[in-house]
């Protein structure tokens, strides 16, 4: 296993719709192991393959906590949102590719996601709360969409201004 570099806002791979995975082989399983390790190292709850520079439709999430240690850790290959609730919820989101920024994002409260595990077995998961939000955020990445795109134009301008300031500070 290896920790991969996480690409940051400005890298075109984050804006490129990712390609479907066709081979469920050892290389895929090894890549997914790396994605989990990279996500844990960065202390995130989700990571999509484009965030390590690979334009492939793969995501990993781990939203387990002490109350729920068994559920909420899995990889989804070629995920698709097949149903969303009418009800929406707002909650704060950040992104490992845009460190230092956080904003409230409104999304459907419940989603049904269909996809494949690393062996190519199809499965469906109905998700709400943190898991539902993490899945929607990571699936957005596979379509070249960032949480910045889901806030108001005013908020987005403020966030991008803050991002440029953070980048200037880290360059200095
Ligand atoms: Ni993200």
How would you describe this structure to a colleague?
With 172 residues, this protein is α+β, with helices and mostly antiparallel strands. The protein has one domain (12-171): Peptide Deformylase. Helices cover 28% and strands 27% of the residues. The chain has three helices and seven strands; from the N terminus they run H-E-E-E-E-E-E-E-H-H. The chain has helices at 26-41, 129-142, 153-171; strands spanning 46-48, 58-62, 73-84, 88-93, 103-108, 110-116, 122-128. It has a five-stranded antiparallel beta sheet with strand order 1-2-3-6-7, with helices on both faces. A two-stranded antiparallel sheet has the order 4-5. The termini are far apart. The mean pLDDT is 95. It binds nickel (II) ion.
Topology:
Blueprint: H1 26-41, E1 46-48, E2 58-62, E3 73-84, E4 88-93, E5 103-108, E6 110-116, E7 122-128, H2 129-142, H3 153-171
Antiparallel strand pairs: 1-2, 2-3, 3-6, 4-5, 6-7
Bound molecules: nickel (II) ion.
Nickel (II) ion is lined by residues 95-97, 137, 141.
- Measure the end-to-end span: 33 Å
User: Which secondary-structure class do the elements indicate?
Assistant: alpha+beta
CATH class equals: Alpha Beta
Order of the strands making up the biggest sheet: 1-2-3-6-7
What CATH calls the topology is Peptide Deformylase
Please compute the radius of gyration using only Cα atoms.
16 Å
Summed up, the domain count is 1
The CATH H-level superfamily is Peptide deformylase
DSSP helix count? 3
Q: Report on the biggest sheet.
A: 5 strands, antiparallel
CATH-defined architecture: Alpha-Beta Complex
Tally of extended strands?
7
Order of helices and strands: HEEEEEEEHH
Unreliable spans = none
Sheet-strand content, in percent, reads: 25-35%
Shape, per Cα inertia axes: globular
DSSP helix fraction:
25-40%
List the ligand species: nickel (II) ion
Mean pLDDT: 95
């Amino acid at each position: 296993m290896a920790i991969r570099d996480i690409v940051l806002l400005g890298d075109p791979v984050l804006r490129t719709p990712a390609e479907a995975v066709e081979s469920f082989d050892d290389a895929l399983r090894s890549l997914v192991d790396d994605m989990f390790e990279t996500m844990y190292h960065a202390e995130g709850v989700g990571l999509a393959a484009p965030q390590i520079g690979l334009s492939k439709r793969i995501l990993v999430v781990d939203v387990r906590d002490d109350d729920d240690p068994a559920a909420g850790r899995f990889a989804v290959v070629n995920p698709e949102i097949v149903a969303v609730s009418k009800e929406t919820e707002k909650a704060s989101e950040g992104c490992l590719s845009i460190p230092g920024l956080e904003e409230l994002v409104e999304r459907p409260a419940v989603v049904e996601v269909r996809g494949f595990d690393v062996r190519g077995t199809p499965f469906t998961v109905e998700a709400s709360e943190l898991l539902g939000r993490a899945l929607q955020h990571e699936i957005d990445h596979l379509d070249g969409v960032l949480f910045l795109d889901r806030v108001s134009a005013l908020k987005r301008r403020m966030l991008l201004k803050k991002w440029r300031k953070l980048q200037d500070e880290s360059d200095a």
